[in-house]
């Protein structure tokens, strides 16, 4: 299969699309990103990377970081983590407060904001935020085998200044006894994890451990890889997760920076990035590109 040719074809098509979606503007630092960018990368388990378009331009990975914190949390707490957060699709926007009240401060899943805050809060306990962020950064660098990956403090600071909604979620969980650290500490740590800055090539390389291929870096057990993929498939795109599963047929996680990381188990990790978002807060062209990619390769978890 000519992966390079597939990426080049998709990239040319995406660059020609007139409607690129809306850049996230509730985080001012993200509002100034040029929406006319598109990149894509495919990392094979052995580390070989194919790239096209702006695949080496760093961007804010935002909610894709939730995959890495979940991996650390499951390593630390195993199934105990599920006392604090559920494993069901939410059918609600990523930043919704509504469901959290109904469900008494236990978020539906680890990929909506409330759930990700619970996960970050769990792994923060016993650490200083800086220590934990250092551990997270090293983990992501190890996964990608790339020490040049950094956290963009300007993006984290920008989100902190406009983080009222996430603070509300954290306070709400605290009121229900589902927060172990002070809301500003948990949110501050979470804003920094979201501000991890990576390119498509780096993010695809970092995702290789989720392919469970023997040549990929072995970061966690096979059972855990399968479970993380299951959550990505069912919850990774919020209230558009069903649609992503239907159209793409691969586990994926999106972020409001415009990235999507998808996993073709046993084959490759794929990253598409375009900053413009659709109505669900997922990359508009990134979603389309993944759909084309799955179609052209025939890769799917459904046979
Ligand atoms: N940092 C962002 C927020 O909490 C992440 C959201 C996302 O990428 N969907 O709003």
Structure description:
With 303 residues, this protein is an alpha+beta fold. 46% of the residues lie in helices and 12% in strands. The chain contains 13 helices and ten strands. A hairpin with a 3-residue loop joins β8 (259-264) and β9. The protein is globular, with a radius of gyration of 18 Å. The protein binds glutamine (GLN). Residues 62-63, 94-95, 113, 159, 166, 194, 255-256, 281 line the site of glutamine.
Summarize the topology.
Layout: H1 3-15, E1 22-23, H2 28-31, E2 39-43, E3 49-53, E4 59-60, H3 65-77, H4 98-102, H5 113-124, H6 129-144, E5 150-151, H7 153-161, H8 164-175, H9 183-194, E6 196-198, H10 200-206, H11 222-235, H12 241-247, E7 252-254, E8 259-264, E9 268-273, E10 276-277, H13 284-297
Antiparallel strand pairs: 1-10, 2-3, 2-9, 4-6, 5-6, 7-8, 8-9
Helix pairs in contact: 1-13, 3-5, 5-8, 5-9, 6-9, 6-10, 7-9, 8-9, 11-12
């Amino acid at each position: 299969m000519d992966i390079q040719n597939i990426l080049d074809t998709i990239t040319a098509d995406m660059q020609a699309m007139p409607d690129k979606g809306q850049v996230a503007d509730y985080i001012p630092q993200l509002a100034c990103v040029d929406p006319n960018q598109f990149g894509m990368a495919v990392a094979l388990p052995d580390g070989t990377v194919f790239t096209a378009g702006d695949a080496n331009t760093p961007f804010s990975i935002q909610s894709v970081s939730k995959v890495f914190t979940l991996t650390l949390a499951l390593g630390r707490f195993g199934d105990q983590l599920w006392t604090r957060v559920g494993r069901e699709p939410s059918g609600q926007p990523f930043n919704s407060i509504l469901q959290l009240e109904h469900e008494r401060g236990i978020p539906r899943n680890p990929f909506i904001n409330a759930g990700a805050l619970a996960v970050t809060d769990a792994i923060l306990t016993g650490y200083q935020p800086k220590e934990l962020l250092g551990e997270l950064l090293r983990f992501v660098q190890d996964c990608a085998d790339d020490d040049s990956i950094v956290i963009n403090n300007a993006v984290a600071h920008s989100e902190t200044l406009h983080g009222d909604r996430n603070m509300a979620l954290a306070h709400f969980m605290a009121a229900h006894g589902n927060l172990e650290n002070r809301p500003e500490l948990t949110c501050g740590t979470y804003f920094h994890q979201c501000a991890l800055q990576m390119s498509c090539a780096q993010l695809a390389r970092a995702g290789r451990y989720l392919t469970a291929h023997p040549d990929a870096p072995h970061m966690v057990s096979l059972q855990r890889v399968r479970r993380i993929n299951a959550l990505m498939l069912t919850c990774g795109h919020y209230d558009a997760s069903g649609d992503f599963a239907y159209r793409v047929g691969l586990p994926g996680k999106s972020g409001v920076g415009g990235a999507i990381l998808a996993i073709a188990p046993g084959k490759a990790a794929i990253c598409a990035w375009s900053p413009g978002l659709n109505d669900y807060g997922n990359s508009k062209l990134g979603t389309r590109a993944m759909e084309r990619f799955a179609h052209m390769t025939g890769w799917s978890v459904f046979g």
